[in-house]
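Continued from yesterday's entry.
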Amino acid sequence: MGIVSNSRLMIKICEMYYMQNLSQKEISSRLSVSRPQISRILAQARAEGIVNIKINNPHRNESELEQTLIRCYSLRDALVIDNGGENASDRMERFAAEAAGQLDSYLPGGSAVGVMSGNTVKSVVEAMPFTKKKLQSVVSLVGGIGAGSVDLHANSIAQRLASKYNTSAFSLNAPALASDPVAAEMFRREPSVAKVLDMGSRCDIALVGIGSVCMEATNIRVGALTEVDLSYLRERGAQASICCSYVNAQGGNVGEELVTRSIGQSLDSLRKAKIIAMAFGDSKVEAIRAALNTGRVHVLITDLATAEKIVRLP
């Protein structure tokens, strides 16, 4: 009888490993059975149903939605958060706290991290704890998005994240959107701006939000985009803004005229980066799907209600 076919021995090894918490090395020493054989026996026991492993997952709904999103949109990972609350402020606070607790695992020590502007990215970064891990650098991926709401600017968010990881932040001291393409090109040629743009294009990780193309969008509220710009984007089928790119429902690039006036990174210029996008809310469902359809988002962080709506879309 082969050792893998010895059912009594198989049960003994399983009891020692799973119930007595002995390591494979300890079992090998006690029973004079090699570690590779023990490994095969444990695998065979699971295949035959002798051992059944059950995970009591209190986040089962979220886990199932995560796997659906990963499968449907070819993501590397997804994080779905149950942030149910009575109002938008509560939901954002709960979302930021949960996302902040997980985000550190996506940021390897020594990596160069780029950050975008926006309320969601700002809230998550603010909720992150200080750590002994050290990043190589934190870089702003886009210029200023208006004279007000400075805390939503990428430069401010980069400074906050850099302070959490004991590293330096590099600010992009230019507007996110110039008045015309010529002015934008002049800004890009400034040595200090060109340096940060180059650093941003070579970052390892990009933390970005996903904007909807509507009057309630942050870019509109803070004055980075005008109503004329919004009408221009809508006429061309824009569903989402992500970085300095605008995309339609199928994930195709649109709004070239605005892109030529933009100062910051586009999806194309961030091809070396692992893009981690975070967004949630009813107004963001179509925008998130459009961003996912680009194939450029690697990790999505969203909430339970939004994920349910996304996976129900055809």
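--- second protein ---
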Amino acid sequence: MSYEFLQEYWWFLISLLGGCLVFLLFVQGAQSMFLQPMSEAQRERMVDTVAHRWELTFTTLVVFGGAFFASFPLFYSTSFGGAYWVWMLILFGFVVQAVSYKYRRAEGNLLGRKTYDFFLFLNGILAPVLLGGAVSTFFFGSDFTIEKSLIAHDGGVISQWGPLHGLEVLADWRVVVFGLMVLFLSRILANLWYLNQISDDLDIRAWNRRQLLINAIFFVPLFLVVVGLLVLSDGYETMGEHQFRIVENKYFHNLFGNIICLVFFLVGVVNVLNGIIMSLIRHDARFGIWVTGLGTIMVVMSLFWVAGYFNTPYYPSATDLSSSLTIYNSSSSEFTLQAMSVVSLFIPFVLAYIVWVWRKFTK
């Protein structure tokens, strides 16, 4: 296996983990609806269906970050080390989430159940928005510069950021729109999950079908805006290891210029919409979560391909063009990638374990 193949192989694995992570955000989507009006019995019934799935979401997030660290360490040191306020907020939200699920029903709970429900609500809103915003910088760029020579100095930092250390991207309305799109997608997945899990309570099913329609009304226009922004945006094209040029409608050419990427994207979009429409039309529909979930994974993977393949830097710098990162100038050594590729052969066994745990939780 060539070095270039290993780099592209690991970007494929990153895209797969990213797709799975976005799908599992249905837990956060569910939490974002915990404070909406409903009876306590209905709320507790809905909480119970996601109370243990958050562990799979958090585990996937950790594996996603770990895979990035091992395969593309320059990105990890640049983004996680420089834009740390965004990642710290995400991780803090997941810590609060774990504490909330553990203690919201505990005896002697001093804060009260509603307080912990509010914490879960905050995680349900912030996690999808911040994660979606972080991924959007793969297209819209971030304000950073990289100077590898600084790492040799005591206390040297390889990347230089503004005083807000990554939070400045939230001032970009495109990033906010991307994050809101992920939020409403996570809420749609949550509604579909409830329709799959709760079949004997007609009131809960009716409530979720109404919420599904509302969330879809917000999601579809946001998704169209995001796609429009991507295909109309200029992008960078790699001319050398740290040499780039601006290309008009770069992501349009990436998407529509590769048949596999385009088919993957279009089939994913059809599946996302099919799962939603099927669940709205049929009162007894229960499998929308799997149809839309599969479509979500396919769309996210194709967007990662658009961002990282086709001589495109997946982490463009809006401050210094030459600091932009590609899967080739930011990856680990060939030996490291080879060793990790052997380890990656165990991924099917890990997925089988997740499925087994999932089924145990369901029962």
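The two ends are 43 Å apart (CA to CA). The chain has a mean pLDDT of 86. Will compare against the first tomorrow.
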